[in-house]
Structure formats: C-alpha cells, structure tokens
Amino acid sequence: MNEEYTIIAGSDSVAGAGAQADIKTCEALGCYGAAAISVLVAENSQNVVSISEVSSEFVDSQIKCIVDELKIDAVKIGMLYNTNIINTVLRWIPFIDAPIVLDPVCISKSNIKLIDDDAIDSLKELFKYATIATPNKFEAECIFQNNFNNLLCDIVVKKDVVNGYSVDRLYKKDGGVFDFSTPLIKPELVHGAGCTFSSAIACFLALGFDIQDCVKNAKNYVYNAILNSHDTKFGKTLLRHNFKDFNE
Question: For the Pyridoxamine kinase/Phosphomethylpyrimidine kinase domain, which residue ranges apply (predicted)?
C-alpha cells in the first residue's frame, strides 16, 4: 500500500501549482495524495484572475473525511488564505500524528502579498507544529526577518541565485545550516516549483527519509521536472511532474 499523504492547499486552474500539482507529485513519487481545498484560484502561469474563498466549515468537513478514512503518513499545508481557515487547520493538528511540511504561502516569488496581515500573524502559530517549513525569500524576510535562531521547526529558504545555481538553504533547529544547489534553468521562474518542492519533501518524509535527504531529493525532483517541462502557449512554464515516464 502506498504511503498516504494529506494536502491542505488552494487549487490552480492550469494544475501547475496548488493541490493539483501536489497530487501529481504524490503519484510520481509513489504516495497516495488526498486533498482538502482551502481556496479556489482561477489562474495560469502568467496571471491570477480571480480568487474565491472556501468556507472554514467546508475545509473542516474535507479534513474530517480524510482523517476518518486514511492513515496519514505526512501532511503538506499550503495556501490557507484567511485566519478562519488557519484556525480550522490548527484545531485538527492534534488529531494528526505525522510529520508536517508547512509551505507558508503569503507572498509570491514576485513579491506580491497573497493574504491579509492578520492571517500572516495567525500563520505563524502553525510553525510550532511543523516538521519543516519552506518559505521563499520574501516570506522568510516577512516572517523571520531573516533571523533563523531559536527556530520552532527546520526551515528551508527556497531559491537564492548564486553564480548560475539555484540554492536552497536549510536551517536546522539545532543550528546546522546546509545548502542544496542545482544549475539554474531558463526560465528562472517556473509556475508551481515551490508547491512541488514542498510536496516532494512531504512525500519523502512519508517514505521514511531524514530531513536532509528529503530536501536533497525534492530539490533534484523539481530540477528534473523543470528540465522536462511542458510547452505551453507561454513557453516552458509548467513542470512535468511525471517526467520519469518519459525517455528524455
């Protein structure tokens, strides 16, 4: 039986990011993914057109259905959108005995704020329950002011560009710091890479890897998904999550 992995995240119309990308990552890496959708997003790789809220009551019902049926081996938490939904997730955490990957989606990789300020404050409460969090550099600055001392969980800050390499830096709770790099690929911004990275970490946690191997394996998985990315009308903007099925 596949390791079972729960996703709490927003949707994405073109399925390059959000819960759709998370589920495709699960399938590619040999896990079974179940999803509670926290917000509906009409978007493609170029634009966010519209966002439709999902009620906290409906998010609660989705999580209950998952917890009632599945043995959960890992959890990935993505975009939660507002304080009510964050508080709903917080109420469920004590009932889930599994590693948690928190992708604190609050500022886009193009530095656009995605949730309200009060929701960012509530989001910080989730860090005390997370195994590892995966902010981008703007989120890391907003949440931590780039101070990674006395952490509540391990933190990996996504994608610093250094001498032609994409570098993710892991800050461990115990003070250790580790860099993971892959060659930089054009285009440098690929839709859904961050979501896929955090999902892959959750998959490898469900499969029993330690944190450093999870980050290394997830980094390499995303790199290859970008190398084999789909052609769209906007260019190579969408990851090929099941690239292993292709002789490329």
Answer: 12-232
